[in-house]
Amino acid sequence: MFKKILIANRGEIACRVIKTARRMGIATVAVYSDADRDAVHVEMADEAVHIGPAPAAQSYLVADRIIEACKETGAEAVHPGYGFLSERASFCEALEAQGIVFIGPKPKAINAMGDKIESKKFANAAKVSTVPGFLGVIENADHAERIADEIGYPVMIKASAGGGGKGMRIAWTKDEVRDGFDRARSEAKSSFGDDRVFIEKFVVDPRHIEIQVLADGHGNAVYLGERECSIQRRNQKVVEEAPSPFLDEKTRKAMGEQAVALAKAVDYQSAGTVEFIVDKDKNFYFLEMNTRLQVEHPVTELITGVDLVEQMIRVAAGEKLAFGQSDVKLNGWAVESRLYAEDPYRNFLPSIGRLTRYQPPEEGKFEEIVVRNDTGVTEGSEISMFYDPMIAKLCTWAPTRIEAIDAMSEALDEFVVDGIEHNLPFLSALMQHPRWREGRLSTGFIAEEYPDGFAPIAPDADDKAVLASIATAVELLRRDRLDRLSGRLAPHSGALKRDWVVKLGQDYLSATVLEGMISIPMELDLSIEGGKALTVTSDWRPGEPVWRGTVGQHRIAAQLRSLPNGTRIAWKGISVAAQAMLPQTAALERLMPVKLPPDTSKLLLCPMPGLVVSISVAEGQEVKAGETLAVVEAMKMENVLRAERDLTIAKLNAKPGDSLAVDAVIMEFA
């Protein structure tokens, strides 16, 4: 077994590999760029080596610097994680030339499966079911249009060397093919250094289901069940689960055996994933093989008990698999939610900045529930524009799917992140969505269910009663605490005031204290809007970001953030400003004028922090609705900003190459 390995990656996956290596008694070496000097993975590793400037192309993607770090520290092997150099055969060969072991598949398998065009040709030859498409070199946009016409719309335009949803576009018409071809090539060039793309038929309402395979260097290979990865946004996975709620045992077995056959055909040695798209009739088609550890591997680990990172290390060290296919048993259900630094209220545009508060839920086993959080950040960490926007992967396991989803819902409500915008509100809302809970999924789920973008869940009457109860309990405790401050008048002391009014958003609800006293822990009986008594219990203390307790029959974990004269409460995808007041104060508050937001209809504002790639218009130019105004790049994704109406360009305030903050003015309209 290796004595020391180097992790050629960063963030949560580097931390994940270090944890397993530490348990196996293997010393670890981290590498880091200028931007990651104070990163968590650097602190966790036994040693750390600086490899260059912040841009990945000058640090994490420079194979020579990784090899130099191995020589400098005496690392015998390299675990590449995912992304960066993980699927680059030339890196694997360079390591082997220096006598350093690559913890992953051999170059032959990477070359055969790592390139999407070549992998489809190989799969066809191996009689694996594939999606109709054109696998040759596409010369230009005109050629792309001709191919799309022959295949039939819709089509998928994909980067050959792509991954993570980058360099990928769906085209429903001829016009969209040309634009999608150009954008896919541009993204592929900037993200992977390879602008080749291919085109295939886009299967309508498909599910994205993948099979985890594990193979050694002695001819043994197994599959470890499947993962349902259909909840995607911009072709990037957001929520995954294992097993799939759609597959039956017959289909699972057929997909698994096909995945293993493909792995054996390329002499695969390591953990790998064979991805399929599955139609409504359970017909499945080979999509690609990822010759690396997948981001979503924890859900497979949770339902099988197999540590995939450990198995990768053991296989790379020459060991045989210690178990066969008959030993693989699927137990319970696991769900993974990817926490991204993206603003769900701005169409999930990237957000960067410092984590002023980062408080994940407690990890461990709690009765029949398991909570796991794979992360590479801590409070005070900086979310950089140079790398992927993923902050953490929150996972829950339970005996059944609904129990796992409910556990995830509660864990998300307990996950506190401040300082940047993030998708926690969306993930919390998703856990309540009927279609998700029923397992009626497709890769178009988010686009279909949120066609106009995401907005917080509107609370129903029961939800309002819970929120009003929390707001009242919080206000009673806050006022009682103020009265106890020395040297201060105590205007709220004396008999407990029974009648209150709670403003939730624009709604006013009456709240009556029926019984109880103000204390920590607290227990009160409240009536909201004259309804039945709700017993409210909690040991919450002012200043704590999460209110935990019960309201009636509900066990609650709600996040609280202070507002002027009130509190913002976030719970199960609901986010509402709450203000508990005495009735006479509420009567006056109703008379206050509403502050209107500023008019920005004549401005194009940068929707996220990013780099201006191009400006497509000039001052004085007349533009039609839908035409491109500018392209802004953030976190390796190009975002096209289009005109929402016919207009004339009055002034350009930015130029290509400018780095802009969110809401910076790019141009003004006449």
Automatic annotation (TrEMBL):
Going by the UniProt record, its keywords in alphabetical order are: ATP-binding, Biotin, Ligase, Lipid degradation, Lipid metabolism, Magnesium, Manganese, Metal-binding, Nucleotide-binding
- Reaction(s) the record says it catalyses: propanoyl-CoA + hydrogencarbonate + ATP = (S)-methylmalonyl-CoA + ADP + phosphate + H(+)
Show where the ATP-grasp domain sits: 120-317
Q: Domain Lipoyl-binding spans what residues?
A: 591-670
What superkingdom does the record give?
Bacteria
> What InterPro entries does the annotation carry?
ATP-grasp, BC-like_N, Biotin_BS, Biotin_carboxylase_complex, Biotin_carboxylation_dom, Biotin_COase_C, Biotin_lipoyl, CPAse_ATP-bd
EC number(s) on file: 6.4.1.3
Q: Which cofactor does it need?
A: biotin
Q: What is this protein called?
A: propionyl-CoA carboxylase
* Organism per entry: Mesorhizobium retamae
